[in-house]
Amino acid sequence: MAPTAIQKTSWADDIDELEAPTKVVEDSVDENGIRTTVEYITNEKGKKVKITRRIKRTLQKSVVEHNVAERKKWAKFGQEKGHPPGPDRATTTVGEELSLKLSAGNKNAEVEPTPSQNMKTQLKAAGAGKVVCRRCSGDHFTAKCPYKDTLSVLNSSDTVMDDDLPPSDNAPPAPSGGASTSGGKYVPPSMRGAGRGAGEAMRGTGSNRDDLPTLRVTNVSEDTQENDLRDLFGNFGRVARVYVGRDRETGAGKGFAFVSFEDRAVAQKAMEKVHGMGYDNLILSVQWSQPRPEQRG
DNA sequence: CATGAGCGA
Q1: Region A141-146 average pLDDT
Q2: Alpha-helix runs per DSSP H in chain A
Q3: Domains of chain A, CATH where assigned
């Protein structure tokens, strides 16, 4: 380490020089593509110096591609209508467009569509926006199929695949329990409905979420939350679902709620007990809910 | 007073 050598202490010195007090007061490009900048600096002797630069920008074939350079000839429109070609530096800046893609989980790895998926896509295009029920071929969504109760026995995707695949009897290597999931997606054991004796998840008879015994609770205060009602009604038994009617915009409660139970007797009991009960500063009213008005599309 | 939301081949 020779102490004699005076070296630049850091790269910051260079930066300082580069950022010497310089003020660009004019910056324009004329119709010939000549950029003129006027700047004032203060030199080391404290004198102000005016610097005018005129920079002729030739088309840089190594930088600007032909098709990009071609755009300079396009007629301007909108607020720039009638202005000379090329970017006007008074109104145009160069920026970078950064796209930030957020995704839940790691599903962002979209795979290339497989040939069969392409076929499906084309079928869809041929249908041109028509909705076809996968269950009964009606013009409604599958979820709304009127026959979904009578035909619901079929296992989701299996029958659909039959259209695409020749009837090959050699099933892919499926473990004994997962026979019904040969379609591909993993289905947790608790969700596999096929195995008759397998899951206790199907407690009792009803697997439908729609036919749960549901109570309508009215006269709830507008700041009542789902959890409040769940706590209240949870005293009588298992609460399957709680919904608080809210204003779409403000989120404030609209004064009513629905509470669904697993068991109808429990719901009955809860209704009797909670009806007339004071809650916040109001008196709750509880009755059986009517099924939702039919929604058809 | 008061009867829910969303998904989409």
Answers
A1: 74
A2: 11-18, 66-70, 115-127, 158-164, 226-233, 264-274
A3: 14-80 (no CATH), 119-166 (no CATH), 214-288 (3.30.70.330)
